[in-house]
Amino acid sequence: MSLTTVQQVKHFGGTLTKYSHESSTTQCTMRFNLFLPRAVEQHAKVPLLYCLGGLTATEDNFPQKSGFGAKAAEHGIALVFPDTSPRNVGVAEAEDDNCVGYSAGFYLNATQAPWEKNWRMYDYIVKELPQLLENNFPIDPSRTSIMGHSMGGHGALTIFLKNQDRYKSVSAFAPITNLSRSPWGLHALSRYLGEDRSTWAEYDAVELLKHLAGEKKLRNDVNFLIDQGTGDEYLNPDHLHTYDLVETVKKLGLTSQFDIRFHDGYSHGYYTISTFINDHIEHHAKALGV
Amino acid sequence: MSLTTVQQVKHFGGTLTKYSHESSTTQCTMRFNLFLPRAVEQHAKVPLLYCLGGLTATEDNFPQKSGFGAKAAEHGIALVFPDTSPRNVGVAEAEDDNCVGYSAGFYLNATQAPWEKNWRMYDYIVKELPQLLENNFPIDPSRTSIMGHSMGGHGALTIFLKNQDRYKSVSAFAPITNLSRSPWGLHALSRYLGEDRSTWAEYDAVELLKHLAGEKKLRNDVNFLIDQGTGDEYLNPDHLHTYDLVETVKKLGLTSQFDIRFHDGYSHGYYTISTFINDHIEHHAKALGV
Q1: Which positions are catalytic residues (chains A, B) (predicted)?
Q2: What is the ipTM of this complex?
């Protein structure tokens, strides 16, 4: 698994580098951006925060627009910004749909044709990418956390819930919380996973939360930080189902573990993320011990 | 001169709004983004900082990627992000050239066909836009400053030098400092202004500086803050002529007024701007008295 450097710039005293590599998971060339803080000069290994992008995003949107740099540099945290789907794999159905295909991986492993060979972003984020980063960079695999935006917020929440021992902390901006009830999810999950909806729950944060709480398997030492603008066009009509998450959290008696912050008038996009990014980096820094 | 609201979002407690309007100067529909800080709720009028974009930019690049928000909100400064050229005016020559035409206004008033009717970004920034902002928003016209990036850095420096009493302060990221000697300038100025190079000097920061210093007309109470990455692809080969500016400043005995900071390895783009934007906002805040 060799890495090719596409571009490198300096940022807040560290480096932001775009890499490409041949992925055995998605069977195509994948790209990601990696921020390594100046702290790598002083420490053998630094903690790592995964940042998952939303629909229509590539590996560039989050690092370009989120304003992550100042606090990441201050705390000496590396951040990785993966792409959001396989690319250029010759699947015609992937071209013309904003919600299925390119930029719409939904951080799951597809089981249905024509998606099942390449659309395996869950395994890419949870298995291949961590191994690649650990093998090539001064990353401490025992200190990783995860966050994301919109579809990437769904990714961060579901990947965290399915791998609670792997991440120190989790947070999300305007996440899709109940994917199998969202119009996006109804459209995408039926194509990626098929019409048997029993398979959908494992990629649905609200359903995973209910299941884990019912089994008493939810870690009680982790706090979920979620920021949601009330001016978000996807909050009403209900694509994100944030209020359902709030209700579920209440019913499950988990309010002390969830900090779901509604911000008056804020939108779905990066102007909201950049306003509150420092709180998220601080949230993760505390859990990562830096 | 009526304004149409294209989009509005919240950002760091204030609002970022995209407006469009019919410009009498450029004879087309122009757009700009305006950040109004929360401070407008407490103050009758707030100071204003002009932020001029570079080649290929629109009114969106600087606000999306610069990270201006935190410090602007803290100091209660409004920022305006104009577009970089006229748009959709049916000039065929404007379509196929990255350095002349759309997104390449160079903040000058063109005198040659087919540009002279619409490519009047100097008058737009110095005359029409200030009047429009003053008429429609709680902006204090006696407290304005100007900064820019690359071609916009050229714009900020030249517009400041030609209107020293209008702005409290000036700064630039990776500015084109000596446009009439830059390949970009040779290409653009010959088209916009014609081959008579005596007309070029008024849109060339180094030439303006020499002239003003020679006439002893340079304000001595203003400091120029300029950030330049040494990894900037346009520094060598010499598109920006930053070292020439340094030499000129030395020869003119103006080193105490120029803070030209070279940053090891930093690139031409917004990852550099966002690293140092806070210093620029602080620089302007001090001059604006906030």
Answers
A1: 150 (charge relay system), 232 (charge relay system), 268 (charge relay system)
A2: 0.95
